[in-house]
Specification:
- This protein is an alpha/beta fold.
- The protein has one domain: TIM Barrel, CATH 3.20.20.70.
- The chain contains eleven helices and eleven strands.
- The protein has an eight-stranded parallel barrel with strand order 1-2-3-4-5-6-7-11, surrounded by six helices. The protein has a two-stranded antiparallel ribbon with strand order 8-9.
- α1 runs parallel beside α2 and α1 runs parallel beside α9.
- The chain is globular, with a radius of gyration of 20 Å.
């Protein structure tokens, strides 16, 4: 049975995604006394505001047989951060969470030294792209590895087949990344430039260099001719609806929906659609799965986030497709809203 993991940013969102069929929920909590800059810690609206709300979420989730996973999200460890992050992790454990995602080897080793009786998961920040990387993390005591999103299906399958002592997890839907998921500071630089002012979640692309568009020009001496405007860093949304059957056959443990910085309606809607199709796969209702997928792709209904299925299909925004397909060459429309 493949687990469906859904993002949350509030207790209300947790109620929605659990009702929609999430097997596990994942979130972060804003760390006291640490200034929030950069992808490492995300804008404050992407996290639960307090540990008190986390405890409330955990209680509700457990009452509905759903696990709660939390992330540390710092891609590095320094002496100045160590005590604060240790207190942060202790607060997670005291809240009763079911697992903690470590985003850095230093944090992972710190958690092992503290000997918490709780599973440690390896974040995609650790860039696990082959069996050797997964094996290394397994020997450090990691119980689940979140694989890098730029892998091909065959590579995922090989990792799963050779990794017998660890669970594996893959992304299936939501905002992407234009690079390998390690330390990116583009978002933080712009957020700092904006002096931390409160931005509407729908304006997230304003503070993300990889989600903005750029003028492409032909320069000849002092003359500059604009050719087009395109998201050349290309970190817009991706989809796996058409690849769910193939992903299921790889043997991965979990399908993760991305979107902690998006709305509760997106989180709920994405969970519903993937829950429905995943249930059809697991019950071997292949014909019904294909019919439902065809209906969804036909554009008769809107996907979570207000994006039509053809927005993904026409632009070939399929997770785990060929690495060099360069979808940014095709103009974007609604995808720019994320």
């Amino acid at each position: 049975m493949i687990k469906l993991l859904s993002p949350i940013t509030s207790f209300e969102a947790a109620v929605k995604v659990i009702s929609a069929g999430a097997d596990e929920i994942y979130c972060g909590v804003r760390v006291p006394d640490i200034r929030y800059e950069g992808l490492a810690t995300r804008p404050f609206w992407c996290n639960l505001p307090t540990y008190k709300e986390l405890k409330r979420v955990v209680r509700y989730a457990h009452d509905h047989d759903v696990d709660t996973i939390v992330t540390t999200e710092f891609p590095f460890m320094t002496e100045a951060l160590e005590k604060k992050i240790e207190r942060h992790v202790r607060s997670y454990v005291e809240s009763g969470v079911d697992a903690i995602i470590a985003s850095d080897i230093g944090i992972l080793l710190m958690m092992k030294e503290l000997e918490f009786d709780i599973p440690i998961y390896a974040s995609t920040y650790l860039a696990s792209m082959n069996y050797e990387a997964v094996d290394f993390l397994t020997k450090l005591g990691v119980k689940r590895v979140i694989l890098e999103r730029h892998l091909a299906l065959d590579e995922i399958r090989e990792i799963v087949q050779r990794s017998h002592d660890v669970e594996t997890e893959v992304f299936v839907h939501g905002p992407g990344c234009s690079n390998i998921n390690v330390a990116c500071y583009g978002c933080g630089n712009l957020f700092k430039a904006l002096k931390g002012e409160l931005l509407d979640v729908r304006s997230l692309k304003i503070i993300s260099l990889c989600r903005d568009t750029y003028d492409i020009c032909d320069v000849d001496g002092d003359e500059r001719k604009k050719i087009t405007n395109a998201p050349i860093l290309d970190a817009y949304s991706w989809c796996s609806l058409c690849r769910l059957q193939d992903l299921a056959k790889t043997g991965v443990t979990g399908f993760k929906i991305v979107g902690r910085c998006l709305t509760a309606d997106f989180q709920e809607g994405a969970t519903k659609i993937y829950r429905e199709l995943l249930d059809l796969i697991e019950s071997s209702q292949t014909k019904l799965f294909k019919e439902r997928l065809k209906c969804i792709r036909g554009g008769k209904e809107v996907l979570p986030g207000g994006v039509l299925p053809r927005e993904f299909c026409e632009r070939k925004r399929c997770y785990y497709s060929h690495f060099f397909h360069a979808p940014y060459k095709i103009p974007v429309s609604q995808l720019t809203t994320e």
